[in-house]
Design goal:
FAD/NAD(P)-binding domain, 8-stranded mixed beta sheet, 13 helices, 18 strands, globular, oxidoreductase
Length: about 425
């Protein structure tokens, strides 16, 4: 098979190597077929295989090539704007179960890492959301109260406590969830693939799926060189659903807008700076729409990122913006040099709620990570695997809806980056109480 070239990134430089799996050739029969070798697909494969089922994963490039291997690596146990009360109002009991799944999502990931001793630079040091304005402090307190009511260990931190956590007085208070943390995402994807294979899951790489259909009691999934026949199907391509094979699932692909998310890494910090800046090594992403986020990797680099409008000289512009943001919050850094800059798609939708859809009998998909796919995608993989292997839907966090494609998707995709301007403007105003 042709070797898959990974886009340059810190993770491509530091993740343990993985021997490429073969491409699919001929016809394979399996109980559950999974399309996509990212966190969702691999988590689903592990869940099916560990319970004795046969499962086959088809990955169009290589394990972790898409969003799962390119993100910041923050393991965040809440979603961007999909608050618990809205889940419950929309979906009732299924929404209640979804709230529980979201709240447990970081623990699901870290427990999986520990159970199978995955080498993924995993640090369950907590996730902290500091308030970027005095008015957002109330938002943080409300979120803490909400998650505590649902049984999760969220903690409110005052401005003084926030200063101690971050080593900076740039923020005003915040919410800490000790179940969160961070990982090397490409290392995690490769470790999950290794675990799945050791449990007898079959993985085929460089095997882009060209079509799937329900024929009688089976799903027929086709690649350029092979066919998989399966009783159940899980589509786990998320933001990349329309990227490799645009005709694969056009209605699903048009229900999200793939938006480039830029990540970057500083030089490793020296010991003196490490002890004063973010001494507890939490993952941090604040309350801005134009998000400021950062955390350490295993080599004490600060992993951060940002977004800019337009495509002109985007790498240098986003590099400079992220360096300025770090320097504003931590003057002792000066303007830090970024040694690695990379990007990948996140799947955005109109209200930033992930969606679960039924593809047909024993066919499932979720889509719309909205920048929170690491923990949630891993948890959803397990949930979809349980659905595909017979768990009653009333016992699962699966509020099923119909896809809602964006009207004039191609235009929506082109103008989506201008959303950043609205977010910046919104960040300057205080929320209504």
């Amino acid at each position: 098979m042709t070797d898959v070239v990974f886009p340059p990134s810190l993770w491509a430089d530091t993740a343990p190597p993985r021997a490429a799996a073969p491409s699919l050739e001929g016809t394979v029969e399996t109980d559950v077929a999974v399309i996509g070798g990212g966190f969702t697909g691999l988590s689903a494969a592990i869940e099916v295989a560990r319970n004795g089922g046969s499962v086959t994963v088809l990955e169009g490039k290589a394990v972790g090539w898409g969003a799962s291997g390119r993100n910041n690596g923050q393991v965040i146990p809440i979603l961007t704007s999909a608050e618990p009360a809205v889940w419950i109002k929309r979906y009732g009991a299924a929404g209640e179960r979804m709230v529980q799944l979201i709240g447990n999502s970081a623990s699901i990931l870290f427990d999986l890492v520990r159970e199978f001793d995955m080498k993924a630079e995993a640090e369950q040091t907590g996730w902290f959301q500091p308030a970027h304005s005095p008015g957002r402090v109330k938002l943080c307190q409300t979120r803490v109260d909400t998650w505590q009511r649902h049984g999760f260990p969220a903690e409110f931190k005052t401005a003084e406590e926030t200063r101690e956590i971050l080593g900076s007085d740039f923020w005003y208070g915040g919410m800490l969830n000790p179940t969160g943390g961070h990982i090397n995402p490409l290392a995690l994807a490769r470790a999950m693939a290794k675990t799945a294979e050791e449990l007898n899951a079959k993985i085929y790489e460089n095997s882009a799926v060209t079509s799937y259909e329900r024929v009688g009691a089976q799903w027929i999934i086709r690649t350029a060189t092979g066919i998989v026949k399966a009783r159940a199907l899980i589509l786990a391509t998320n933001a990349y659903t329309g990227e490799l094979v645009p005709s694969l699932a056009p209605r699903l692909a048009k229900s999200i807008i793939p938006v480039l998310s830029w990540q970057m890494a500083t030089q490793p910090l020296g010991d003196n700076l490490r002890r004063t800046i973010l001494p507890g090594r939490q993952a941090v992403s604040d309350t801005r729409g134009d998000l400021r986020f950062f955390r350490y990797d295993a080599r004490n680099r600060l992993i951060t990122g940002g977004a800019v409008m337009g495509s002109h000289d985007v790498v240098n512009r986003v590099r400079a913006k992220a360096a300025r943001s770090l320097g504003e919050a931590f003057p002792e850094l000066g303007t830090p040099e970024m040694t690695h800059v990379w990007s990948g798609y996140i799947g955005m939708n109109w209200d930033r709620f992930p969606r679960i859809h039924r593809l047909g009998t024993d066919g499932w998909v979720w889509i719309g990570c909205n920048g929170r796919g690491v923990a949630f995608g891993t948890a959803m993989g397990r949930e979809l695997a349980r659905a595909a292997t017979g768990t009653n839907e009333n016992d699962l966090a699966l509020p099923v809806t119909e896809p809602r494609p964006f009207p004039i998707h191609s235009i929506a995709r082109r103008v989506a980056p201008t959303y950043l301007a609205w977010l910046k403007r919104k960040d300057l105003s205080e929320p209504k109480q």
